[in-house]
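Weekly structure sync, notes
Attendees: PL (lead), two postdocs, one rotation student
Agenda item 3: pending single-chain targets
PL asked that the sequence for the first pending target be pasted directly into the notes so everyone works from the same version. It is reproduced below exactly as submitted, 288 residues in total.
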Amino acid sequence: MTATFHSARFTTADGPQLEYRDYAPVGAPAGLPVLCLHGLTRNARDFEELAPRIAGLGRRIIVPTQRGRGGSDPDPQPERYHPGTYVRDMLGLLGQLGIGRAVFVGTSMGGLMTMITAAHAPQVLAAAVLNDIGPEVDAAGIARIQGYAGKAMSAADWSAAARHCQDIHQIAFPREQGAEFWLQFARRTCRETADGSVVPDYDPAIARTVAPGSSALTDLWPLFAALAPVPTLVIRGAISDILSAATVAGMQRRKPDLQVVTVPDVGHAPFLVEPAAWDGLRGFLAKH
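Predicted structure, written out during the meeting:
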């Protein structure tokens, strides 16, 4: 059997509809569902390789696209583009699906959403995977994201879009020099317009989350503290400019049972199918 998913839409409490993928477990169900949460400028396609692998372990996988990205509606009130809003959306989605508890796998912003969930709705969080995110975000990484998030970009075709993605993200994947990797990257993060040009697949207003002075960038240690009773795995890209080794060490001091996996030669953020990441994640899911 191979993993399959169906796409559906969920109407949030304040109006925008979200697109999500629902992967059925392969074989007999073998644990709680897994909710995969993407990063700031990304969408459900980020997990198109990972989700079938997890489904192959007998887990149901829910992979939403947050408002303002991909096939989900933009928000007519941009001030609502905030992790707190996204968490409320996810709690509503899980409620509609009848899922009372789940394992959260959060990449970057998705990991921040996971910490917020631990603080405000701990009953739904059975275990947490934080992918290259923690309670301190390095200034260098934020500056890099501010340099491209929400900025206008239009490529003439997919090949040009791939080169643009490589220019921005090569720092995170220095070993990836092949055109196929970057074309796949572009197809995950961009969309083709009616005139054939290719643009980022999100509402530029989502970038307000990382604007200077944003409340999303304030002290996050109290949110991390809410994970104290929750089994948690941190996956860090070894050359990440978002999650430093020093921050991970601080997380381990505060939460001695924290599990940590480092992915060599990858920055922000691993796709979680790299051998080190997948081995760590698979072992963690086997226990939770």
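Discussion points:
- Strands lie at 5-11, 17-23, 34-37, 61-64, 102-107, 125-131, 190-192, 198-200, 232-237, 259-263.
- Residues 64 and 75 are 16 Å apart (CA to CA).
Action: rotation student to compare against the earlier draft before next sync.
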